[in-house]
Amino acid sequence: MDKRTINDIDVYDKKVLVRVDFNVPVIKGKITDDNRIVEALPTINYLLEKGAAVILMSHLGRPEGKVDPKYSLAVVSKRLKELLPNNKVIMAKDVVGEDAKAKAANLKMGEVLLLENLRYDAREEENDKDFCKLLADMAEVYVNDAFGTAHRKHASTYGVAKLLPNAIGFLIQKELEIICGTIENPKRPFVGILGGAKVKDKIGIIDSLLNTVDTLIIGGGMAYTFLHAQGYAIGNSLFDETNVEEAKKLMKKAEEKGVNFLLPVDFVETPDFNDVINYRNTKDQNISEGYEGVDIGKKSVKLFTKAIKKAKTVIWNGPVGVFEKKEFAVGTYAIAKKLTKVKGTTIIGGGDSASAVINMGLAHKMTHISTGGGASLKLFEGKILPGVDVIDNIN
After folding, report:
1. DSSP 174-238
2. Taking 90 as the threshold, does the pLDDT of residue 127 lie above it?
């Protein structure tokens, strides 16, 4: 790790601006999963113990550059107060307005200020220079601990870092060490599992993983594009028509590299995505006319779990079915359960696969569950995260 961490900087009696990822699920005004807040606590507590005044900034949802109470961080502020009972936690009414400036100026050692939703201001996602300066003017040190947005070149994840002494927090440090360390030196057999809807979203990662994995399992919506490319019927299933040729190239590369490229050999099909009554298991890879695939079938579960059983390293991103509906979550659950038996390293690459594992109560049995789906995918692909790249190296 050649990037400066918070262990390498002096924060005593300084205001520290910390980018965290508090983009948590909120239903009817209540947080349904506070994992991202909890994961940020080691960095926050360390800074407070070292005598810093901590200014936290995050986004929540997609308010599209407009103030929308639905996306207010007030609910996060309430949870923070519960998690930091020994520290004063206050919240600004705005992002870089008069209230935020005044509260930041008066913030004392050991106190925490949470700014309102960064994406209330359209300049955040534009990495606007003036917005960066307004954020930077509130503090003396910048820390990025938002792994979930480290792949974004936004004001709070990139631009501000250029204006202040900077470092990464413990969460980003942990994510980098575990994910990068595993991919660079995996114990074998090394199995990659990819789900998700569209091939175009994961062409880069598939291409990259074919250079390192022993087995690559493809499930979820994008499996139908690969099967279509092989001539199978896919009914009304998800289909990425623009990337059929790319799918063929990837399968050819897998063959050339000697990678065991596994696609489903049967499916659960239903006449309609929302029909949880008239579903059935197909006999083979073909989806019936008028039906769509919503999960891998029984034979596919056996095929995939057999490959996982032999693994010493597994990385997984993306469920293999419509896991939000319990009837179509059988395949995803079977994979998650088999991962708990792996005698080696299991990394869940954030996003829906992480949600599935957490919802199933199996999180504690995995080696690592990433807090960022998009960011972990970039690392799986071997790419550099802008939010990390911009941080100064250790002198």
Report:
1. HHHHHHHHHHHS--SSEEEEE--S-GGGTHHHHHHHTTT-SEEEE-STTHHHHHHHTT--BTTS-
2. yes
Backbone angles phi, psi at 96, to 5 degrees: -130, 20
**Token pair of 73 as six digits:** 């961080």
- Cα 279–chain centre separation: 31
> Of residues 293, 350, 374, 387, which has the active-site annotation?
374
* Contact in structure between 371 and 350 (CB atoms under 8 Å): yes
Helix (H, G, I), strand (E, B) or coil at 326: helix
Report the candidate in 218, 223, 216 with the shortest Cα–Cα distance to residue 240.
223
State how far the Cα of 381 lies from the Cα of 202, in Å rounded to an integer: 9
Residues linked to residue 167 through DSSP beta bridges, in sequence order: 143
Q: Which of 81, 198, 312, 383 is catalytic?
A: 198
* 318 given a catalytic annotation: no
Annotated active-site residue in 159, 192, 350, 351: 351
Place of tokens 């059935």: 280
Confidence tier at 339 by pLDDT (50, 70, 90): very high
Assess contact for 127 and 159: CB atoms under 8 A.
yes
DSSP string, 333-384: HHHHHHHTT-SSEEEE-SHHHHHHHHHTT-GGGSSEE-S-HHHHHHHHTTPP
User: Which among 4, 15, 19, 36 is annotated as catalytic?
Assistant: 36
The first and second tokens of residue 335, run together, are: 């994979």
For residue 142, give the nearest of 391, 395, 385 by alpha carbon: 391
Whether the predicted model's global pTM rises above the 0.70 cut: yes
d(CA 130, CA 144): 19
36 is catalytic: yes
- Short-list 102, 95, 103, 105, CA closest to 60: 95
Q: Are strands 345-348 and 368-369 parallel, antiparallel or unpaired?
A: parallel
User: Are the C-beta atoms of residues 344 and 377 closer than 8 Å to each other?
Assistant: no
Active site residue 62: no
Q: Give residue 1's pLDDT band: very low, low, confident or very high (50, 70, 90).
A: low
- Which position has the token pair 């299933």? 237
Residue with tokens 């509130």: 138
